[in-house]
Amino acid sequence: MALQTAIRHPARVNTLVVISIPFKRTGWYPEIQTGMTSLAPEFFVGTPMYEAYRRVAPRPDDFPRLVANMKEAI
Q1: Hey, where are the domains in the chain?
Q2: Would you state the pLDDT for residue 74?
Q3: Which of 2, 3, 44, 52 is the 20 to 30 Å CA partner of 9?
């Protein structure tokens, strides 16, 4: 999304650091693809990502939905 913003609105983006953004799912190494499909919400409990989500999410109990969306996006 940030990359699209930079492309569409270059005058509004001063600096963009892009790290590891495959264009397609097939751009990931097979091992990464396999690992990402096995993600589960319980893997994140106690992590900074989980804690931040719980702090700011309008519906903190929807964390499993976020993980499902992440898996779908990969």
Answers
A1: 22-73
A2: 66
A3: 52
